[in-house]
Amino acid sequence: MRYLILLLSVLLFSCEDIVTLDSPKSDRFLVVESTLTNLPGTQKITLTRSQDFFDNGPAPAIRAADVVVKDDLSNEYRFVESAQTPGLYVWAPADSTRRLGQVGRTYQLTIKTGSDTFIASAKMNPVPPIDSIAYKKATANPGQTGEGKPKEGFEARFFGNDLKGEGNCYRLKFYKNGKLFNGTSDLLVFYDSALQKVSGTDGLMFNLPIRRAINPELYVANDKLKLELYSISLDQFSFYSQARLELNNAGLFARPAANIPTNLVNTNKNSNLQGSGWFGVSAVSTLETVIDPAKARKDLP
Question: Is-above-0.85 flag for pTM?
Fold first, then answer.
């Protein structure tokens, strides 16, 4: 047995040569980053071009595109490229009372760049309210530790119920003192009241793994915790789920990388440029609280 362990150690730790692989050039994808909402204020769409696998620089911006969103009532929203940020296209309401997104409306995005025209469509589904946020005293677990993170503090839970009707999907974003938790493990999407598509979860309270997933690190007194719950389509849920798999696809047993589906279609059949990313529309509910040690609960699971 000792010799077997020695052999495995040699095989695992003796190979230290760095091998640089040639990868094909990748400029064949127009990448869309956009989730339009029913929140007041400006709406944004980012357009970039894909880059080589080993290129760690900023993605090249798609400049001077014609970007328009129309709803199923023929209302038109024209997005104008930012003078300060190439590739960022912005729609600003004429007054504070006007909002782009409305629940139940279907929206079509049209992007014209050169001889290519991309289209995508999405429907804005309803979203339930976030009922409340509670927290309890806690000691950081191994996943919550790290440089600059508190070792003692408070762990939070949120409460809310899935809407009636099977197949509602959601994404939850969570912020600490205005900063979005945006690590590869912080992409939280769920189906009805469970993390995965399973039966018997319609219309229930979001389950415990969802409610406690808002704690990449502990909170301390006077921290502001903000939550945003987004309605997403089943197709967008699948997109995010596969994106999460690819973002966390690393290590000794990593599988080959795979393309992630998109709802962008190039109507120019003779073009080599393809669509990537996702155009989504979401209704959003929000709730925030400030951590007050005097309000910590002892009965939270």
Answer: yes
